[in-house]
Amino acid sequence: MFIVLLFVCVVLHEFGHIIAARQFGIATPTVTVLPIGGVASLERMPEKPGQEIVVALAGPLVNVIIAFTLYALAGASLEITDMARLADMQPSLLSRVAEANVALVIFNLIPAFPMDGGRVLRALLAIPLGFTRATQIAARIGQALAVVLGILGLFGSPLLVLIAVFVFLAASAEAGMVQGRDMTRGILASEAMVTDFQTLSPSSTLDDAAQLMMRTTQPAFPVVDGQGVLRGAVTRSDLIQALREKEGQTPVLDIMRRDVPVVTERTYLEGIFQMLQQQPAPMVAVVGADRRLKGFITRENLADMVMMRSSRRPSTVGSRR
Predict the structure, then answer these.
(1) What DSSP element (H or E) covers 151?
(2) What was the pLDDT predicted at 87?
(3) Neighbours of 308 (CB within 10 A)
(4) Are strands 262-264 and 230-235 parallel, antiparallel or unpaired?
(5) Distance (Å, rounded) from C-alpha 316 to C-alpha 305?
(6) Is 161 in contact with 136 (CB distance < 8 Å)?
(7) Alpha-carbon distance 233 to 260, whole Å?
(8) What's the CA gap between 195 and 222, in Å, rounded?
(9) I want to staple 267 with a disulfide (CB 3.0 to 4.6 A). Which of 98, 196, 263, 285 is the partner?
(10) According to the model, what pLDDT value does residue 74 have?
(11) Which letter does DSSP use for residue 57 in this model?
(12) DSSP class of residue 193?
């Protein structure tokens, strides 16, 4: 029962972020609940540091309200030393839930990514330093904290090691995402798209696709009709799986993905970067005014472009919101 109630508290914590983000017109496509907490994935970052502070603090505020309610209305006692007792009757259960919410508040307010305190720190640093530089500093603090937690965990706490790995990877991912968004700002899709590629036709078979796969390094193959209009895409992984299960003469139409995002050549790359972060699509197709396929952008070539641009710019340069 304690685990179930703790799970509910974590979900309510994430809904605190969701409701606050909606006040600024930001949707939340997914919420991931992990054994050590939850992550609400916002479709975009708040536009102003003050907005990010509000969104970040909304989650811990929910836990404060839960703890206060249990303490004031249910007679729970807030004694952190009693949290290890999990087999008592209802009064102790309420106390432990209250204590767990206090612990969630304390843990989430640590000023390091990916905790909410790290986002507050990033927002405060972004005012004088810019968003990108502030993210780098907050991420490094998060990684340093992860190293400390990992070392402590080696002395008898596997959970701390798990938390350390999660914190380190999440901090690295946040820094990479912000850097990628910064490096793609102001660039058009036509400047970054892959234009030298092989395509499949609606009449192509799995054998045809397999031959292309052997001759190229493309991660996916667009399927276009006789007018050059995109019909879908076949990924390497889908093709390999289909070759195991289907005949070689099976049409690629039977296995292609039809939900490939389509943008124009004048679309800014920053939006495409966010699109690839949020969707499992193998590519983003780029079309001209006549709707004919001109090229495509994948995570791989976008990452290559970000690395090349970052190597030409000082890593300390940050962009302001």
Answers:
(1) helix 131-153
(2) 42
(3) 10
(4) unpaired
(5) 18
(6) no
(7) 7
(8) 12
(9) 263
(10) 65
(11) H
(12) S
- Got the DSSP string for 219-259? SEEEEE-TTSBEEEEEEHHHHHHHHHHS-TTSBGGGT-B--
> Could you identify the residue written with the tokens 């889908």?
238
> CATH homologous superfamily for 189-311?
CBS-domain (3.10.580.10)
Number of Cβ atoms within 10 Å of the Cβ of 157: 13
| Strands ordered across the beta sheet of 293-297 | 262-264, 284-287, 293-297
Report how far residue 58's alpha carbon sits from residue 71's, in angstroms, rounded to the nearest whole number: 20
164: tokens are: 């350390």
Please tell me the distance from the alpha carbon of residue 225 to that of residue 235, in angstroms, as a whole number: 18
The CA distance from 45 to 24, in Å, is: 10
**C-alpha 294 chain-centroid distance:** 28
What angle, 0 to 180 degrees and rounded to 10, lies between the N-to-C axes of helices 49-73 and 116-129? Answer: 150
* Token pair recorded at residue 263: 């943008």
| Model pTM score | 0.62
- Could you report the average pLDDT of every consecutive run of 10 residues in the chain (321 residues)? 86 89 82 72 76 89 89 63 46 77 86 82 86 83 86 82 81 73 75 86 91 87 88 89 88 88 85 73 84 86 73 48 40
Please give the single-letter amino acid code of residue 94: L
11's tokens: 């979900």
User: Where exactly are the structural domains of the chain?
Assistant: 1-109, 129-183, 189-311
Two structure tokens written together for 77: 């006692």
Say which amino acid occupies 277: Q
Helix 116-129 × helix 131-153 angle, to 10°: 150
d(C-alpha 207, C-alpha 188), whole Å: 36
Number of helices (H), then strands (E), belonging to the chain: the values are: 11, 7
